[in-house]
Amino acid sequence: MSEHSIVKEQPEPTPAPQVPAGRGGRLRARASHLARTFTTKEGWFGDYDYAWMCTPTLPCAVRSGRKKKTMPPFYALDSDLPILLALACGLQHALAMLAGLITPPIIFANALSLDAETSAYMISSSLIGCGILSLVQMSRLHLFKDYYLGTGLISVVGTSFATLSTANAIFNAMYNDGTCPSTTAADGTVTRGPCPDAYGMVLGTSLICSFLEIFMSFVSPRTLKKIFPPMVTGTVILMIGASLVGSSGMPNWGGGSNDCMSRPSSGFFELCPDVTAPRPLPWGSPEFIGLGFLSFVSIILTELFGSPFLKNVSIIVGLAVGCTVAGAAGYIDGSSITTAPAITFLWVHTFKIRVYAPAILPMLAVYVSLAMEAIGDITASAEVSRVPVDGEDFDSRIQGGVLSDGIGGFLSALFMVTPLSIFAQNNGVIAITRCANRTAGRFCCMFLILFGVLGKISGVFLAIPNPVLGGVTTFLFASVAVSGARVLAYNRFTRRDRFVLAAALSFGVGDLLVPDVFTHLFDGVNHPNKGLQGLFDSITIILSTPFLVAGVVAAVLNLILPQEDVDDEDEEPQVVVIDVEAHHAESPKEKHAD
After folding, report:
1. CB 272, CB 243: distance < 8 Å
2. Could you report how far apart the first and last alpha carbons of the chain are, in Å?
3. In which region does residue 140 sit, left (phi positive, over 0), alpha (psi from -120 to 50) or beta (all else)?
4. How many alpha carbons lie under 13 Å from residue 557 in its C-beta half-sphere?
5. Model pTM?
6. Where is this region: Disordered (predicted)?
7. Does residue 187 belong to any structural domain of this protein?
8. How many domains would you assign to the chain?
9. What is the pLDDT of residues 31-43, one digit of tens each?
10. Comparing C-alpha atoms, which of 213, 118, 200, 132 is closest to residue 413?
11. Rounded CA gap, 200 and 135, in Å?
């Protein structure tokens, strides 16, 4: 061995990283980090391109010769985030969710003919509850062994549209069986009276049914995905969106989804929304259609020309433009704003929490649906946050998210709010802003709680004219249906898949087009006892709710129909294609040879 190949000097050891020892050291390091964040320009602004966030899009502009703008950096879950960017992204998340959060309370209040003060409180409590429970979802608290509470992602919660569809069917059953008051005019027009107790019954039933989703959170995510594959979840989500477009979106676009929709010739609902409105008109009047169309077109124009910030809040832009024109034209009643309190909080108004027995089975089905939605939404949030979507860590996020979803259903009933479950509306904000940081999510929760505490804001939301709300929610509910179609696209669509989907949609779409087809199913049963009648009502509610009956059919058929051999089915068309191509390729040669 040559002496030149011998290393006589050894490298000096690398010093160990300085980790603060003990609790005091960690606190000092944390304090130092906060001081740098709040006292330096980098801590406040960072190197984010704020001009990019606010620059409008010009699709027709000539882009030749221009340099392509550099995309902003991606901020991961727990990376350092500038304060201004955290505020901006948090506000975008809150505004992107806002329309979806205020719509269910408004629809519930209209369905039960509740007064403006109660309706405004329902909106406020929904916003506050969403902010509190979203913080829990983002936390990912370790419980025991491999079990967690929360996803650890920017997983925000809101009133599920699945609850909205089912609650409307439950309210209809309560008015039909006399639980809620109603009067019938001489011309046959039925007018529903105020029924706050019905809302309390839905809350109580939801509270006890939430334990089903809590139990499901301890089932392996792989098992849940096997029982509820994309074929089932996609069908459910598709039918939720489609049914809401028909039961709420378009009717409100025409002037209202209450009794004025039947265009009675006299009475309180002869005009929409009622005869006491500032400018009441018959349902379907061109003025109403125009207001809704203006809001709808505003969403489209924002998508075409808006900056990334405005695109994230295009629904709010549609509401703002529609309300501006409606206010100038005299369609807005400001009484809800004047009667709303300046400051409010949870439990300022309460409902009698009771259990409505016929609603138990439908609400259990709703919580199964919420668990299915949660799994899909968590997966989407993980993908857009650049977090692995497989492995034990991801399974623990699903488990923690479903558990938090179930506990959230229990707590939301105590908050006087219908079940709050994971929302997916904010995933677009993460994708566009490239910010998946949980600090932005916490600021989002802060804004939601602030919007709820400021009672006048709820009064403003309540004053939105029905046509404006209808034009916006029609787009919102259609987006839900598109999400369901996207989930269905994950299927291979074998013959078995097509059969399952066709069978499920036979009931779902049929129920959607002919809503009363199952309401008289048990009319021939003479003098049923109270328990049997409750069972009949439960079955009727399930059969009368398109997404429930479609989901049940899809889930049952998916379990009992055997899987097909996909490989064999895939090989057949490939052989045919190859033979056809070979035939067309060889024919000219043969002809030339001849």
Report:
1. no
2. 77
3. left
4. 19
5. 0.82
6. 1-25
7. yes
8. 1
9. 776 767 777 777 7
10. 200
11. 26
